[in-house]
Amino acid sequence: MVFSSRVSLILILAIAVICSGCMQPAPSGSKGAGGYSDVTAQEARSLKHASEGKLVIIDLSSTYNDGHLPMAISIPLDSLDTKIPALDKSRPYLVYSNTDDASIAGATKLVNAGFSPVYRLQGNYASWVAAGYPAE
């Protein structure tokens, strides 16, 4: 009986070790803890084209005039709370900024206000430009 318990324990530990090596990081586009989905620049571009003009793109930075994604609207993070009531909850949203802190905060605010789906551009504006996509 003791032998059987030890064999079972060793078998369970061996399976756990093997399975832990099989784990992969969450794919991009997966839901984060904030309830929004992180997307790469390529995925954001695909969303933009597939949405047939319904995707609302929000630049949360204070540097909108220095460059932004085409069709993006400027809502600096510090004024997002006052603008949320005027936004259409039936549309999908993509948010970005110049920092992760700002884009995460903005995406989380939208989700907490009942918006869905909400996407956050991983790497923010810099990732869009680095991918060679047009900016205004």
Describe the structure.
The relative contact order is 0.19. The chain has a 5-stranded parallel sheet with strand order 1-5-4-2-3. It contains 5 helices and 5 strands, in the order H-E-H-E-E-H-E-H-E-H. The chain has helices at 2-22, 41-50, 80-83, 100-112, 124-130; strands at 37-39, 56-59, 73-74, 93-96, 118-121. Helices cover 40% and strands 12% of the residues. The protein has a single domain (26-130), classed as 3-Layer(aba) Sandwich (Oxidized Rhodanese, domain 1). It is an alpha/beta fold and 136 residues long.
Task: Give the gist of this structure.
The chain is an alpha/beta fold and 136 residues long. The protein has a 5-stranded parallel sheet.
Describe the protein's topology.
Layout: H1 2-22, E1 37-39, H2 41-50, E2 56-59, E3 73-74, H3 80-83, E4 93-96, H4 100-112, E5 118-121, H5 124-130
Parallel strand pairs: 1-5, 2-3, 2-4, 4-5
Gyration radius from CA atoms, angstroms = 21 Å
- The counted number of beta strands is 5
Measure the end-to-end span.
73 Å
Relative helix content = 40-55%
Largest sheet: 5 strands, parallel
Order of helices and strands: HEHEEHEHEH
Fill in the CATH topology: Oxidized Rhodanese, domain 1
CATH-defined architecture: 3-Layer(aba) Sandwich
| Overall average residue pLDDT | 83
CATH class: Alpha Beta
| Helical segment count | 5
Structure class: alpha/beta
The CATH superfamily label reads: Rhodanese-like domain
Strand content bin: 5-15%
Structural shape: globular
Low-confidence stretches: 13-30
Spatial order of strands in the largest sheet: 1-5-4-2-3
Whole-number tally of structural domains: 1
